[in-house]
Amino acid sequence: MKRRKLYEGKAKVVYETDEPDKLVLEFKDEASAFDGLKKARVEGKGALNNAISSALFELLESRGIKTHFIKKLSEREMLVYRAERFPLEVVVRNYAAGSFVKRYGVKEGTPLEPPLVEFFLKSDELHDPMVCEEHVRALKLAPPELLPEMKKLALKVNEVLRELFKKKGIRLVDFKLEMGILPDGNLAVVDELSPDSMRLWDERTGEKLDKDRFRFGLGDLLEGYKEVLSRLKN
């Protein structure tokens, strides 16, 4: 099934398959932060991200939210639909953290009600600058008529994931999504849903269970990811 390598990024390798509308994503044991300036090989990270992403995609699909996910193939691989991806990151923030704190001087952990949706240009070279809807239109980053639907989809994903993590004793602080158009013409969530792409804090202790552990040396990365997966299974 898996054929020619189509693309290799920081965290995943994308392969073509015998079917033109399907791809294989292979999750790598690589951790990176600060636009790739900080890197390390973390044995087992790929399998954890594949397992967590698969579980979250399955949940979204069960709630009527379109994704590119088809099935988990192996410990590190998933089968997905090929999508026409937009060069945008759609970020949903429930609490102030990360770049939001730096930009606006808000105390980390401040609740944001209602949840905030932001768009960023996906570009390591430009350090993923934030863009407004007018920028998206002017730069033709996505069809303008889809922007309201993208916001609506992002907030629906937030509603489902926030509810899930709350039941598991985890606070969903923020997360980023990538979106694209599936072969059937539907807007969908693509890429991955893992602690690489979201901030997850223990509700009771405030311990960070996401990639910030690697970014800022806050503890063993795998321990945080394993804890997230363990709670999702229980």
Total E-strand runs? 14
> Roughly what percent helix?
25-40%
Poorly predicted runs are none
Estimate the mean pLDDT confidence: 96
Give the C-alpha Rg. 17 Å
Give the number of helices. Answer: 6
For the largest beta-sheet, the strand count, sense and barrel status come to: 7 strands, antiparallel
Structural class: alpha+beta
Instruction: Bin the strand percentage.
Output: 25-35%
CA-to-CA gap between the ends?
Answer: 33 Å
Shape descriptor reads globular
Q: How do the helices and strands follow one another from N- to C-terminus?
A: EEEEEHEEEEHEEHHEEEHH
Index terms:
single chain, 234 residues, alpha+beta, seven-stranded antiparallel β-sheet, five-stranded antiparallel β-sheet, 34% strand
Brief summary:
The chain is an alpha+beta fold and 234 residues long.
Write structural notes for this entry:
By secondary structure, the chain is an alpha+beta fold. Helices cover 29% and strands 34% of the residues. It has six helices and 14 strands. It has helices at residues 45-62, 99-104, 133-138, 147-167, 212-215, 221-233, and strands at residues 2-8, 12-17, 22-27, 30-33, 38-41, 69-72, 77-81, 84-85, 88-95, 111-121, 130-131, 170-181, 187-190, 198-202. The strands form three sheets. Strands 8, 9, 10, 11, 12, 13 and 14 form a seven-stranded antiparallel beta sheet that branches. It has a five-stranded antiparallel beta sheet with strand order 1-2-3-7-6, covered by helices on one side. α1 (45-62) packs parallel to α6. The protein is globular.
